[in-house]
Specification:
Residues 39-118 form the Mce/MlaD domain. By secondary structure, the protein is an alpha/beta fold. It has helices at residues 2-30, 139-145, 150-168, 172-203, 206-225, 229-236, 238-247, 251-269, and strands spanning 39-46, 57-60, 63-73, 80-87, 99-105, 110-116, 130-133. A 7-stranded mixed β-barrel has the order 1-4-3-2-6-5-7.
């Protein structure tokens, strides 16, 4: 009887030690080796935390390096102090000048702190340093940051909805597309005809003739602008214009003067 009791005591002690060992293993391994890890505490001051909570992930370039330890109101300014607990092993990658922002991940919209590394040549952050807050870059963050302007976005969406509804009513869009197609076909046909005309002109030497005519016309206009010839002098010299105006009296004399001018211009151009 005494021997049986001793055996039961030994079994009980063995089970107790085993249970304590298993619980200890779970605690040490499940706690992410918390007892063997050193942390530094750094801060960031946000105007709003957009749902960020204590325990949220702190990410450095996409790698989880810590958690949000505490969020408190700053008494002297209208902002929130986010205290982050970051693994000491990653301290060398967090330099002074690094920035932080609150981002959203997952379908449920979980918030986390994203650390944007600074200049690698800068000094490492110290215990208690405050990192600068960067402008939000993710869509949800931008909408949250520009909360007062979000209404304009919905107004624009509403206007677009009204416009598309009006265009699709009574098959307007279908008719509009049909008209656009007809207009496009007409333009293509006109372009084809124009190409044929240009080809015909070029094949008969018309292009060269047209170019010569344009050069000749340009030469005449240049002489007129310089005041050369009778017509150039008439246009550029106001005294001649006044004299001619005085000469133009009755209809008979007017016709004689016009004939004289026409003859003079023709001789000048030859």
């Amino acid at each position: 009887m005494e021997s049986q009791s001793s055996t039961q005591i030994k079994v009980g002690i063995f089970l107790s030690v085993g249970i304590i060992f298993i619980l200890g293993s779970i605690f040490f391994l499940g706690a992410d080796k918390a007892l063997f890890t050193n942390y530094i505490r750094i801060h960031a001051h946000f105007d709003q935390v957009q749902g960020l909570s204590e325990g949220s992930v702190v990410s450095l370039s996409g790698i989880n390096v810590g958690n949000v330890e505490k969020i408190t109101f700053l008494p002297e300014v209208n902002a929130l102090d986010v205290k982050m607990k970051v693994n000491e092993n990653f301290r060398a990658r967090i330099r002074k000048g690094s920035q932080v922002e609150i981002r959203t991940q997952g379908a449920l919209g979980d918030k986390f702190v994203f650390i944007i590394p600074g200049d690698p040549k800068a000094e490492m952050v110290d215990q208690g340093d405050v990192l600068e807050v960067a402008r939000a870059t993710d869509l949800i963050g931008v909408i949250s940051e520009r909360g007062g302007e979000t209404g304009k976005i919905f107004d624009i969406i509403n206007d677009l909805h009204k416009m598309t509804s009006a265009m699709t009513a009574n098959n307007r869009m279908e008719r509009l597309m049909a008209n656009l197609e007809k207009a496009s076909n007409s333009l293509n046909a006109a372009g084809t005809q124009a190409d044929k005309m240009i080809t015909q002109i070029n094949s008969n030497g018309g292009g060269e003739k047209l170019a010569k005519s344009i050069d000749r016309m340009n030469s005449i206009m240049t002489k007129i602008d310089k005041g050369e010839g009778s017509l150039g002098a008439l246009i550029n010299d106001p005294s001649i214009h006044n004299q001619l105006k005085n000469m133009l009296g009755g209809s008979t004399r007017k016709n004689n003067v016009k004939s004289l001018l026409r003859t003079s211009i023709e001789k000048e151009e030859k």
